[in-house]
Amino acid sequence: MNEMVKVDRRDAKLALAHIYVAFIALALGGLAGLLQTLVRSGKFELPANISYYTILTTHGVLLGLVLTTFFIIGFQFAAVSRTAGTFSDRVRFWGWVGFWLMTVGTAITAFFILIGQASVLYTFYAPLQAHPGFYLGLTLVVVGSWVSGFAIFAHYARWKKEHPKQVSPLLTFMAVANMILWLVCSLGVAATVLIQLLPWSLGLVDRINVLVSRTLFWYFGHPLVYFWLLPAYMVWYAIVPKIIGGKIFSDSLARLSFILFLFFSIPVGFHHQLMEPGIDPFWKYVQVVLTFMVAIPSLMTAFAMFATFELYGRSKGATGLFGWLRKLPWGDARFFAPFVGMAFFIPAGAGGLVNASHQLDQVVHNTIWITGHFHLTLATTVVLTFFGAAYWLVPHLSGRVMTKAMNRLAIIQTIVWVIGMTFMSGSMHFAGLLGAPRRSAFSTYGNSPQALEWIPYQIAQAVGGTILFIGIILVLIIITNLAFFAPKGETEFPVAEVAEGAERTPLAMENWKLWIGITVALILIAYTIPFIDMIQNAPPGSKGYKLW
Amino acid sequence: MAKEKMKGKATEDSNLKGTLASVFLLGFFLIFTWVSVYYLFLERL
CB distance from A362 to chain B under 8 Å? Predict the structure, then answer.
């Protein structure tokens, strides 16, 4: 019955517009990434005076901020329209307003990066100072995403009103949780941009409190990671079970894990600042403890996924401890790509526990290990799940079907990605343990023996980066085909049902006032005292630097 | 009562030994990685 439910054509257009921008960002940002790895190999120099830091900023902003935010909002619009019903004209109108604000903001930001006025990397750390247009563009992206978030909230509120005392559809619940997370955390980046960075880059104030700006950035920056990850979890919990022919192991467990992410993904930003002076070690410790709490919902997810796969495999007659693995549909790219993403989350999570531990962070901080880490979390786990979702979402929205040839190409794409990322991220991890820095362009540091040790790993990164770029070309071919050239027809938007034996979901799961209250309380506990300390005992502040 | 019935059904049908083994393997891998880097830290003190 579910197979026949389609996203309304007008809502589909809105979702597709977001997805197109996301894949254009992938093309441009991926090219920048390829160039970076080539430069870092020491065998290639950028032509025409193009700065390494310009392409580094382009890569980070386009892939870390634009690809993700556009894909996520497009996907969530489709998921909410599919599970909570077609949008009203008003909701759809505001969805378009959000889309255009984000698109215009992206264009402005990209313009100032490309003309070399904003080579401040995607973290835009002060005291590096960009052109005001860069900050203004980013502000529009964030404001646009808020507008879209409120459009989703409005649609959810209407559904709740029309369905009193009913539990909302799981995917809608998850989209709402993710947008609340986004809204609460992006207040931090909005504050640093509007109160600190913009007036400072306009010349209205001379100096900036660097520690406050970085703290506000990481108040946003860590939950940003979960804003990327939760839509992947939406696919894993609520869609992959349907694709394999199984059921959701537990609806309540899925909702509980999202609520825990809301609690614990925000008051943890200090684990990105463990090496930073000016923050009392006690508060770093508190946030490290909270960071380890956020591992719990991820472990819950791992358990739920294993259980879903095992229950399905056993229902098909699998025997032995791991016999159920053989029953999974390995030839279906809609399953294979997200599954590989899940598998890569195991080393990614292990690396995350290292990063979050104060002493261990001293081994890896500001090394390319960190870059390797987030190329496993974002650029493999999340991105492969998004690709896997796009393989049914794009044809569903465009009214086409994926051919067998395209499915085969998608399987090959996933394998290419695995090979490329194993080379690139693996060598980044090892080079990082040997002290190779992140962010910086190629240098032998005066032929120091330690720096010369890193070069073979940097060449391996270029090999991996090149293979990954082939992967990007393949996925772009597939997506273009699915959007414009594949045969016309009906593609299912898979939404799984809950297993028969699962407990009923309690209504209390949707007590948003309580969940938001706890979230705010945890943030206040983790941040208030150290934040007051940063302002009261602040140094004079820094002037802006343009080092490119 | 309905709850009890459901519980009974779940216990009869589900065999999650593979899941148990998988989460244990996952846990060991996490601990192994953490301890490895911790030793590296101690070595460099």
Answer: yes
